[in-house]
Amino acid sequence: MSCPQACEIPETAQFSLAPSEELSRPCSVLCWDLLQTSVQEALEFPLPLRYMLLRLLPKPDGGVGSAGWSLPAPIRSDFPRLSVSVPGEAESVGGLSSRSIVLTYQEHLGVTYIILNEDPCPRMVIHNKCPIPLMLKETVKETARTEVYCRPLPANCSLHHELYHHFSSFPECRQKEMLPTLLLKTTSDHSSTDWTDPIDINCPGTQTCGVAQVVFLPGFGCLYIDVLYEKGTLVLCLAPEGGLDAVIHQHSSSRKASCRVLLSEASVVLSDDITNPSGSVELLRLTLTKLFLSLAPAPTSLPQEQGASDLGSAHISLVEVYCSNLQIDNQLYNRASFHFPVLLCQDQRNGAEPGGGPWSSEANPTESPEALEEFKRSCFLQLRMRLAGDRCNAEEVRA
């Protein structure tokens, strides 16, 4: 494991990649950076050693070389997927000072293909709320198949990270295995070079009785650590003694779930399976056309009850159901003494189809907020319900 400073980049040729919408064809790479220059027999990791380092190109109005390089990403067939943390500007990445890039490896007819995409679900996010830079080291349980680098953590900075434990086991599922412990140390020239005690990250949330993990950081003092999962990402928060409130607030902050469902058509059938032993007989069929279901946190614009606290309103969810057309068919119409094929339907005035034309993956009301509001106004069935924080009690129902 290489520590404590980041690797040195040799003087080699560099190449740039345009954004995906501008890149019409793959970019050929004719050379690789070889970080090992010693004799082949003395190498711990035999050749070929291929690494790729990434960085974001500076903006036209930014300084040259303002963004640093990522840690070396090994290019090997036994590492088909890696999540690379590329340094960036915190203002442009939602408070994070890095971008998480998925690097996938494929081979075909002797040609190596490297594909880079934005990572929609990073493995790990680290928030360093300390006023000093830190160094993070992973305790590797098994013999490493490649160099494992320490992760520099700048002061008051948030960035992405992926453990060797994660990318070395992909695509195997090792969820039941314990995650490795982590070690921290300061990087100041005048501070101690000792590492902290091992930090357990297998227990999401604070430890017993709502108290965060506390480790002693040599040369600094007590360090409070909070671990939680957010949308599949392991979030690690490091805070000094005075920043304990930030850790507790992060752990106690509400997680707001939201989803949208669009159904072009949905049917519910009422069947008789008791009085007809020969087979099931359909009695009624309810058909819903252009159904829109939504679950989201209640916006602050909705009227709140007098005296409701901000914390209580943050846990309120809004359920919306909109239907463009509804029809109940009499499935016994062909039998004796049943004269009405349709029991209930919407009055389609002027022969126009409610809610516009048919839906498709390219044309639906979620394309824009204006189209969605127009669809909602055109629906004859509109239901809005506010759920309390326990998701069991309805506070308000509108139709």
Automatic annotation (TrEMBL):
Domain of life, source organism: Eukaryota
Protein name (database record): Vacuolar protein sorting-associated protein 13B-like isoform X1
Gene for this chain: LOC104966812
